[in-house]
Amino acid sequence: MNSRMRSRKLLERSKQMTRRSIIAFGLLLWMSFVYAANAQPRAVWYRYYDQKGIANISSSVTPAHIRYGYEALDSNMQVIRRNKPYNAEADLRQSSQREAQARQREQDLKLKRAYGNVAIATEKQNQALLAIKKQIMSQQDQLKQLQSDRIMFKRQEMEYLRKGESSLPQRLKDQLDQNEQNMSNIKKNISSLQTSYRTTQEHYSNIIERLKALE
User: Fold this and answer.
1) Residue 157: exposed, middle, or buried by beta-carbon count in 10 A (0-12, 13-18, 19+)?
2) Dihedrals phi, psi of 38, to nearest 5 degrees
3) pLDDT (average), residues 125-133
4) When you count CB atoms within 10 A of the terminal residue's CB, does the N or C end of the chain come out lower?
5) Which of the four pLDDT bands, split at 50, 70 and 90, describes residue 47?
6) Bridge partners, residue 57, by sequence
7) What is d(CA 158, CA 114) in angstroms, rounded to the nearest whole number?
């Protein structure tokens, strides 16, 4: 009876091992099918059509393939990939765009190093504009003084003419000429400072806007 029991156990173990082997074999077979389905076919031939429409096939990619565009073929001559013709103009445009982007990145780094953030740039803008504004106000004060001096010189001129003097004293003539020249110079300075104010304001506005975009 013990012999029969051992035989049954051995038979049961044999069946279990057989089932496991079948399952393992099926799993391996399924994985091989999945791999075969997902595997990318290897390119064996490369075909392009020239300007006359004639197909040219070779085992490697030549400059002509790149110029006309080509198809990658597998061993069964089936197309597995298509490559567009090389476009010199498009490549040049892209190259110019890459250069412009590189320049912009370099400028952005310089801005970051120089100003750090919007708050610092705004503070520097205010300081620069305030300094220019003070110069304008100083020039305007000088202009007012020159205008007052001119009124005084003109009154002296009218007084000499009222008295019937044939000519003005040379000293008064020199004062009038110098006054006129000084007023002209001051007006030019004020105009230049006002232009500098606007330019500085625009300069910092561009910097601040760019820093905002980078934050």
Assistant:
1) middle
2) -90, -15
3) 97
4) N
5) very high
6) 47
7) 59
Which residue in 83, 79, 82 sits closest to 41, CA to CA?
79
**Burial of 80: CB neighbours in 10 Å, binned 0-12, 13-18, 19+:** middle
Alpha-helix residue ranges (DSSP H) falling in the chain: 2-38, 63-68, 88-115, 118-162, 170-214
Distance linking the first and last C-alpha atoms of the chain: 87
- The pTM for the full model equals 0.54
Mean pLDDT of 94-121: 89
Asked if 150 contacts 183 with a C-beta cutoff of 8 angstroms, the reply is yes
Residues 183/111, Cβ–Cβ less than 8 Å = no
- The dihedral sign for the CA sequence 31, 33, 34, 38: positive
Cα–Cα dist 181/206, whole Å:
38
Closest among 114, 107, 193 to 123, alpha carbons compared? 114
Q: What average pLDDT does the structure give for the chain?
A: 83
d(C-alpha 72, C-alpha 92), whole Å: 26
